[in-house]
């Protein structure tokens, strides 16, 4: 009888100690947060209207999203399979998924506050070599300050004139 109780308590203790861990091959909460933030931004970028304010065709928008998602996964050095496994894991654990979304909200709120306070713009005005205040995962041309999302982190490229 005592052995059964001891075994049960031991298993319970081990299980509780593993509660916050994720299985091997699954992105951590922080990694998942960063990928999902970028994917949400990609959805916004892809929804921007075309020339003269005309809405983009859905097929064009979906093509842009596919390209952005591929770039995001490459940027974070993960495969589609890893992302799908991680997404499925978090989707099947709503409490952990909520934590990821709460973390996303905190990051986006902090970025929004920094932009609204003008800190990033002031930094750029004082030193034009700093990245423009458009997020961490954008490529910015030093010639035209053109924003190209999800290519390299905080890098500037020289575009031919």
From TrEMBL:
It holds the Pfam family DUF4296. It comes from the Bacteria. Keywords: Signal. This is DUF4296 domain-containing protein. InterPro entries: DUF4296. Residues 1-19 form the signal peptide. Residues 23-112 form the DUF4296 domain.
């Amino acid at each position: 009888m005592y052995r059964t109780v001891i075994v049960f308590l031991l298993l319970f203790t081990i299980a509780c100690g593993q509660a916050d861990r994720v299985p091997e091959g699954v992105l951590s909460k922080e990694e998942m947060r960063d990928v999902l933030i970028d994917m949400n931004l990609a959805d916004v970028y892809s929804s921007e209207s075309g020339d003269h304010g005309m809405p983009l065709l859905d097929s064009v928008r979906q093509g842009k999203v596919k390209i952005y998602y591929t770039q995001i996964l490459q940027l974070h050095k993960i495969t589609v399979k890893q992302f799908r496994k991680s997404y499925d894991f978090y989707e099947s654990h709503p409490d952990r998924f909520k934590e990821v979304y709460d973390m996303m909200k905190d990051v986006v709120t902090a970025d929004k506050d920094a932009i609204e306070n003008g800190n990033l713009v002031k930094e750029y005005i004082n030193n034009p070599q700093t990245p423009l205040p458009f997020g961490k995962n954008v490529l910015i041309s030093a010639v035209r300050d053109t924003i190209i999302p999800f290519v390299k982190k905080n890098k500037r490229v020289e575009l031919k004139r």
